[in-house]
Amino acid sequence: MTGHENASVRSANRKFFARIIPLLMLMLIINQIDRSNIGFIKHQLELDVGISTAAFGFGAGLFFIGYALFEVPSNILLDKLGARTWLTRIMITWGVVVFATGFIQTPTQFYIARFLLGIAEAGFFPGLLFYFRKWVPNVYRGRATALILSSSAAAYLLSGPITGGLLEMHDFLGIPGWKWVLFIEGAISVLVGFFAIGWLVSSPESAKWLTSEEKIALNSALAEESTSRDRASHQVSKWKLLFEGQMAYLCFLFFTMCMTGYTLVFWQPQIIARIEGLSPFEVGLLTSVPWLCAIIAINILGRLADRFHHRRELMLSIALVVTAIGTFLCATGSPIFGLLALCIICVGSKSSAVLFWPIPQANLPSSIVAPGIALINSLGNLGGFFAPTVFGYLELKTGSTMGGLMGLSAFSVFAAITLLFVKTRPKPVAMEKSPNV
């Protein structure tokens, strides 16, 4: 790539970062809030709908069953129909399901609503990662991924105060607070989804705000990367690539990360609520603290991951160990000490994601990138079903979260050890010196 072409690619990506990524970040923030808000309304659902702790864990996890079943088909359709059409469809339909959840009256209806929410959301996050393959060269992708994952952490930072504040609307117009949470947050999703229809651009060719020179240079850079990635695998069938050992190992790693991540999301408000004398709004504020720590950490790591991309496996192993330490401490300390432990878990968990996702983004062949990222995300997200379900059962039987937290800590340590012996990436594509966006 010549210096002139490199300048055009840099200019095109600056425009993409300025115009498109903020909207993607907003969409993901809303996505994560809508997915995790049941952690804040657990007690109200128990009182009004009769959902026990075990039933709550099972229902929270059912989301991931629907998600896993429809993840790969959803990403294939995104590849065919484009991000503008498919990402906005996903957002509008999940908003409708969240709104409708406000009308549930039985545990069975809760199960159905969570399963349908998983179907509606399927393909959204891997769709964002695949969208980057259409726009962002590998040299910028760590930073782009870090920004997206920052918004995921920001969602949990904002979710506490927002959902806690909406719960304070209890009995306004005779409507319980948990219903206000679902009605308002679901409606916002639908409105932002309709706005995104007119703002997103599926590919560089459709972007009116890029010059012809920028479009040509960006497409050339992306095509060059694609050719380098595919050269070693052009004689191997798509299905063999999709189900070979490296893919299985990536699914295992992400499964382990999701077990801790989603147990944290669903049970964090309950862990913090053990601190005596807190109102729902104050609990919400305190849940923001760990996610603020995570945002700071992952934005630093985003640039480090691009600069030291050959060390990603080692860095990911360290992040998993940090997650394990935080989980262990959360199981052994006082409620106040638990808040510090939650900060460590959040930093480790979100840092792991920043270091993990550039690996499949950069190295999966073009023939399987859409279904491949979706497969990793869908099978990995089953950890979000397995861990909360077991966690809820153990708490019901033992009256404590210690056993579940210790198990999660052990899983993270095991995954960290395997990273020292298993190669997750082929030889990296030769790139020019990383420019600054």
TrEMBL record:
The chain crosses the membrane at residues 16-33, 53-74, 86-105, 111-132, 144-166, 178-201, 247-267, 283-302, 314-331, 337-357, 369-391, 403-422. Pfam families: MFS_1. GO terms for molecular function: transmembrane transporter activity. Signal peptide: none annotated. It is a multi-pass membrane protein. GO terms for cellular component: membrane. It comes from Winslowiella iniecta. Its main location: membrane. This is MFS transporter. It comes from the Bacteria. Gene3D superfamilies: MFS general substrate transporter like domains (1.20.1250.20). The keyword Ribosomal protein does not apply. Keywords: Membrane, Transmembrane, Transmembrane helix, Transport. SUPFAM superfamilies: MFS general substrate transporter (SSF103473). Residues 20-427 form the Major facilitator superfamily (MFS) profile domain. CDD domains: MFS_ExuT_GudP_like. It is found in: Membrane.
